[in-house]
Specification:
Blueprint lengths: L9 E4 L5 H12 L3 E6 L12 E5 L5 H15 L4 E4 L14 H29 L2 E6 L12 H20 L5 E8 L5 H8 L14 H13 L4 E4 L4 H9 L1 H26 L9
Parallel strand pairs: 1-2, 1-4, 2-3, 4-5, 5-6, 6-7
Helix pairs in contact: 1-6, 2-3, 3-4
């Protein structure tokens, strides 16, 4: 993509009715992009924008995925940007996790993102340009006890993004990974309800609009990875380089996270912790 204008750029966003996804759609629409906003369970806003085409699709279903891509090609002839934003988290102890929830995290967070990327990539190669943006997580850099499967899916997405970026050098197609920490969403409320998932609350909690602002900047000026907030980048990568360090400091991080979680609950939610700090 050349220049800074997003006017009439065709952007496909999965998970578009969620907290981060909806913020992305609103920002893109405000910048006159043409947005294909994909949702499944959550209904789109009642006030619809003329630049946004909402389409209900279960992206874990192969037939519905195929129909989505075919519709985009028929209607717009191209996709300038793909944003893989759909995701699901079920917190809790791994051994007590329901198998259908485990499978849903794998299907939605990894498999669907991979397959949609593959299908859109075929079109982008014909175009000779394009930008694929994957919404990862700090949980794809730092291990997340009691959200082990979700963390594993985001680790996988991070490896996929960096590996694919190398494959696509010289093709005109860019790959970016956005790795937010805690974001004020329904997903974070799910984590707040579980006593053990405290690590998400050790740092600054950001608003979905802040994430969307970063994504628009990355569309205009592609980067391999952006960690949000910036202040957590160094510490998270340090833990990546030294798993033993994480093992030794996890109890401290958990205690700090419980304090941060209590502040979050007091400010954003009616939920209460199931144990005392």
């Amino acid at each position: 993509m050349s220049g800074n204008s997003l006017k009439n750029k065709v952007v496909l966003v999965t998970g578009a009715s969620g907290g981060i996804g909806n913020a992305i759609v609103n920002k893109l629409s405000s910048d006159d992009a043409i947005v294909v906003a994909v949702y499944h369970r959550n209904s789109p806003p009642s006030e619809l924008d003329k630049n946004v085409f909402w389409i209900k699709t279960d992206i874990t279903n192969s037939e519905e995925r195929d129909n989505l891509v075919a519709l985009c090609i028929e209607k717009y002839k191209r996709i300038d940007v793909l944003i893989n934003c759909a995701g699901f988290l079920e917190p809790g102890e791994f051994s007590s996790l329901e198998e259908n929830h485990l499978q849903k995290m794998i299907d939605l967070n990894i498999t669907s993102a991979f397959i949609i990327t593959k299908k859109i990539l075929s079109l982008m190669k014909i175009q000779g340009f394009g930008h694929i943006i994957n919404i990862g997580s700090l949980g794809g850099i730092v291990p997340m006890p009691y959200s082990a499967v979700y963390s594993a899916t985001k680790f996988a997405l991070r490896g996929f993004s960096f590996s694919l970026a190398e494959e696509l050098k010289g093709t005109g197609i860019k790959i970016s990974l956005i790795s937010p920490g805690a974001v004020v969403t329904k997903m974070l409320d799910e984590e707040a309800f579980d006593y053990n998932t405290a690590i998400s609350f050790i740092g600054k909690i950001v608003n979905p609009v802040e994430v969307a602002d970063v994504i628009l900047k990355v569309i205009r000026k592609p980067k391999a990875e952006v960690i949000i907030p910036r202040g957590q980048a160094f510490g998270s990568k340090l833990i990546t380089f030294s798993p033993v360090l994480f093992h030794h400091i996890y109890k401290i991080l958990h205690r700090i996270g419980l304090i941060g979680k209590k502040k979050y609950l007091n400010r954003y939610s009616d939920l209460t912790l199931t144990k005392e700090i």
